[in-house]
Amino acid sequence: xxxxxxxxxxxxxxxxxxxxxxxxxxxxxxxxxxxxxxPHLGGAVLLSHGQLWDYMTIYGYYPPAFDIVTTxxxxxxxxxxxxxxxxxxxxxxxxxxxxxxxxxxxxxxxNALIASALLATMPxxxxxxxxxxxxxxxxxxxxxTMFTFSTWLRDYLFLPLAYWFSKNLKNDFLPENEHLWRWIxxxxxxxxxREKNPCTALWISPLIHSNGCVCPCWMDKEEKHPLGDLNKxxxxxxxxxxxxxxxRNEFRTDGAKNELCCDCTYAYEGGSCTxxxxxxxxxxxx
Length: 286
Ligand code: SF4
What we know:
A hairpin with a 4-residue loop joins strand 1 and strand 2 (213-215). Helices cover 56% and strands 2% of the residues. By secondary structure, it is mainly α. The protein has 13 helices and three strands; from the N terminus they run αααααααααααβββαα. It has helices at residues 2-6, 10-25, 37-48, 52-59, 65-77, 81-107, 109-121, 123-128, 135-168, 170-173, 201-204, 235-239, 242-254; strands spanning 207-208, 213-215, 228-229. The radius of gyration is 27 Å and the shape is elongated. Strands 1-2-3 form a three-stranded antiparallel β-sheet, with no helix packed on it. The model is unreliable at 280-286 (pLDDT under 50). It binds iron/sulfur cluster (SF4). The site of iron/sulfur cluster (SF4) has 11 residues, from helix 11.
């Protein structure tokens, strides 16, 4: 479980994708060409022979992307119905992977894995991934659009808005005397990063979760950086172990690179250091 959380459930997603791929490609020539497979296969055959005008006049009512990709698959695997169905398998796999990324942004990696596994095991989706039809491609592009739109919302709307608020409204919340502010702000109104992070937590304050997982410090409430498991190892071996040593070395040489510490309060001028504050409030943006 700790391993899965460390890699954000991507190894489990890989298993889902491999199992799905094996099941989807099994006996792909299982049935003769059916329904709308005909126009896509026929269209790709025309494109493969360079008969663009014939393609436009006969099959022009379909969006061409699927047929163009199928033409590419014909070049690799030869002109046959299995090659056409492999296109649907490919876009089904891409759709499952993008569904994982999209769900992870909003609901976390574990729920994203469930979402992608549910999609992979939906009978209708599975069936569509084994026929030369464009539905899996549509699902993929629709999900990709949602994913890029939510990324755009965050990067071009929410973050600039937060930046604008921090710049323009700070005096509504902060004391007028800048010396009383906690943070030292740069020209953009954002907290100024320290050249050297003075935190000593990695040497004095391990965090032990109730399940026995030892983490670097109290900021790691989600066990994203597990250093050892007290159910399997002695604390002494974890504390002096390789993982802890590597983390301390990385922190000492370039703390800004360290994923755990780079955005910690101590990484910024004015951020409090161990023992300096009476009360510390941490806001987590999960
Ligand atoms: S800098 Fe922050 S995250 Fe890193 S060890 Fe210190 S308290 Fe923890």
